[in-house]
Amino acid sequence: MFELRTLAVQSRLLEGNRAGDPVRRDLLVLVPPEVPDDRPLPAVWLLPAHGGSQGGLLANDPWREGMAQRAGRLYRAGQLPPVRLVLPDLFTRFGGCQCLDSEATGPYERHLWEELRPLLESRFATTRHGLEGHSSGGFGALVQAMRHPEHVAAVACHAGDMLFELAYLPDFPRAATALRREGGVERLLAAFDAAAKKQDGRWLSAINVLAMAACYSPDASAPAGLALPFDPETCELVSEVWSRWLAHDPVRMVEVESHREALRGLRLLFLDVGSRDEWNLQWGARALARRLRAAGVAHTFEEFDDGHTGTAYRFDRSLPLIAEALSKE
């Protein structure tokens, strides 16, 4: 089994964040057995899904294999080369941050590269960095590769958020209904904070929409610091806000030549999605793969017969690929 190390982080960048989230965080690192810290190895950053946490990635029970156990099994079988797995704490009041800087949540993109990366490199000899994640974590991995080619050398994106009109629009009417029921953004958030059971249909759509608004359309003058992409009375789209969301859509981002060039420079670009994804992400993955082919961006795209959740077994496919790509001279 990989050994778990904990690096304490007192973030200067997250101080005073509007969401009131902790500035003291733990950066967790899974290291292969009997490998000294000063041996240069690649780092694979495992970015959390919306509502996900480090503990969720590490959780191990008879029916679900945790990441330390999974990596250890692959390592013992000779399928995973020596690599360090890095689990950042990017949780917020909204359930996540999409790895983006926002006035509503905090500067998590800068936190990742300006605080966490140097901390990791100060403790472990590191050759290259790769990013991997599922859902919002897959989105974060892909977007950070486009925005930071100076840091990211390989990406594995599992069912990442994309083609926003299909991934997010279906939740807008349900979110509008919840906002009317609770009496607005701040009252909805307060009710959610107080709820004993948070992961159910009463909250899921609304909180997901508010979380994305906090990341894609922050507005310091709006309730909770976020601008809604629709009119809460009629659910009609607010075009100037919706356009801010679309600017973060990987399917749109890849139309920008600098982003395509960043992806061309990767050692690995791996995409996959379940063909029955409940968030309609199979359509976005197909659209992105088509654009990548047209732009001459080398990548691997795989569809598999499953939905959106309970697909951690796909790490068995991606972890060896990204570790091998990062390890090659």
Which keywords apply here?
329 residues, globular, single chain, 13 helices, Rossmann fold, eight-stranded mixed β-sheet, two-stranded antiparallel sheet, 18% strand, alpha/beta
Give a structural overview.
There is one protein chain. The mean pLDDT is 97. The protein has helices at residues 54-58, 67-76, 108-123, 136-147, 164-167, 172-182, 185-194, 204-216, 239-246, 250-253, 257-264, 281-294, 315-327; strands spanning 3-10, 24-31, 41-47, 84-87, 101-102, 106-107, 126-134, 152-158, 268-274, 300-304. By secondary structure, it is of the alpha/beta class. The longest helix is centred in the middle third of the chain and has 16 residues, at 108-123. It folds into 2 domains: 3-163 and 250-327, Alpha/Beta hydrolase fold, catalytic domain (Rossmann fold), CATH 3.40.50.1820; 166-246, no CATH class. The chain contains 13 helices and 10 strands. It has an 8-stranded mixed beta sheet with strand order 1-2-4-3-7-8-9-10, sandwiched between helices. A two-stranded antiparallel sheet has the order 5-6.
